[in-house]
Design brief:
Blueprint: E1 19-20, E2 27-28, H1 30-47, E3 56-60, H2 65-81, E4 86-93, H3 100-114, E5 118-122, H4 123-127, H5 131-138, H6 143-161, E6 166-168, H7 173-186, H8 189-194, E7 199-202, E8 205-209, H9 217-227, H10 243-257, H11 261-271, E9 284-285, E10 292-293, H12 299-308, H13 319-333
Parallel strand pairs: 3-4, 3-6, 4-5, 6-8
Antiparallel strand pairs: 1-2, 7-8, 9-10
Helix pairs in contact: 1-9, 2-9, 7-10, 7-11
This protein binds iron/sulfur cluster.
Length: 352
């Protein structure tokens, strides 16, 4: 990755190259690399018209490299190009000891440098369960199924509470390529169609955007390093059992023989068209919590129902399995126990 000694920067010609860009192969000095990285992020924002002046944008922040770079670049571009955005950091505390507590500490340090307000919403207060407690109930597998569903809703609820118009997430090109692969392997046509979009949401959901969608993970690491950004890089304790890890390994193997594999997969995802005769789910709202759902209960409420009734494994996968168990239980108990998802008004936000 590092350029050989005495290679001149192909950007300015004067400085000595500090790296060879993984994305383009260009030998660049630090300054030209940072300028190119920021210009590409700005280009993606402008081309997709991601923001409008006056919007409040909640930047999904975890303390990891992607969201740290995203917050840094967005604040910089907002000032440089006069986007006119009100930026704030929104973090989700899943309740994972030895991981999220440390990454939130890194985020608080970064927040001080950025000078942006930080708000934290927690699973414990939204759902009454921490991820560590869920993992003790569920076992080593499927933790990410719970965590992914809960985090998506937590970000939406936190952003709505803060009056945000949009959520920006730090997903990079490698993340998008992995998601395309995973959805293809699962045959999840609905998600496959949506996952490569730079701007998603609408139909009642808060819009979400990925300004770093075209940035390679390796370049995000280089950018963070050259800018001296303080981020947390330890992997989540539950990650080794995540299905995504297999997609990541497959992608790395593909990249070793075809360096453009990441960009190719992102491009494939963008070009996918779903046949007209494929039935897509109809969007409604969850009858319990009011969140968007194509089923009577949203996925988070189904998962919570499974947890609260000691049937977590039944809540994973096809809705029918838990539904049948609940129908049987309802006959003897007289209905669902309403209100197990915490009232969103009770959501604690910590302002700094
Ligand atoms: Fe949650 Fe899984 Fe990510 Fe850990 S690896 S933070 S459990 S989604």
């Amino acid at each position: 990755m590092a350029a050989a000694a005495r290679v001149s920067c192909q950007g300015c010609g004067s400085g000595r190259a500090a790296l060879r860009r993984p994305k383009t192969g260009q030998a660049l000095c630090r300054g030209c690399f940072a300028a190119a990285f920021e210009a590409e992020a700005h280009g993606a924002i402008v081309a997709a018209r991601l923001f409008r002046a006056g919007e409040t944008v909640a930047v999904g922040a975890s303390g990891g490299k992607d969201s740290t770079v995203l917050a840094h670049v967005l604040r910089l571009l907002n000032e440089r190009h006069g986007y006119g955005l009100r930026l704030l950091l929104l973090a989700v505390d899943e309740g994972i000891a030895g991981y999220r507590d440390d990454s939130l500490a890194a985020l608080r340090r970064h927040r001080a440098r950025l000078g942006l307000p930080l708000h934290v919403v927690s699973y414990r207060e939204l759902y009454g369960w921490s991820m560590d407690r869920i993992a003790r109930h569920v076992g080593p597998r499927n933790n990410c199924t719970f965590c992914g569903v809960f985090r998506r809703q937590a970000l939406d609820r936190g952003a709505a509470l803060l009056g945000a118009d949009k959520i920006a997430t730090g997903h990079n090109a490698d993340d998008v390529a992995e998601t395309v692969l995973m959805n293809f392997l699962r045959g999840d046509v609905g998600r496959l169609q949506r996952c490569a979009g730079i701007l998603t949401g609408g139909e009642g959901a808060l819009p979400r955007c990925k300004p770093l969608k075209h940035a390679y993970e390796k370049e995000i690491v280089l950018y963070a390093y050259f800018q001296g950004l303080d981020y947390f890089s330890t992997e989540c304790v539950y990650a080794p059992n995540a299905y995504r890890g297999h997609a990541r390994t497959l992608l790395k193997d593909l990249e070793a023989v075809r360096p453009s594999a990441v960009a190719d997969l992102v491009h494939s995802g963008e070009r996918l068209a779903v046949r007209q005769d494929v039935r897509m789910p109809t969007q409604g709202t969850c009858r319990r919590c009011g969140y968007l759902s194509s089923q009577p209960l949203c996925k988070a409420c189904v998962l919570l129902e499974g947890l609260n009734r000691g049937l977590p494994q039944l809540a994973i996968g096809k809705p029918g399995r838990l539904q049948k168990a609940l129908t049987d239980a309802r006959k003897s108990e007289g209905g669902f126990q309403e209100g197990s998802q915490q009232d969103s008004k009770a959501t604690r936000t910590i302002d700094f």
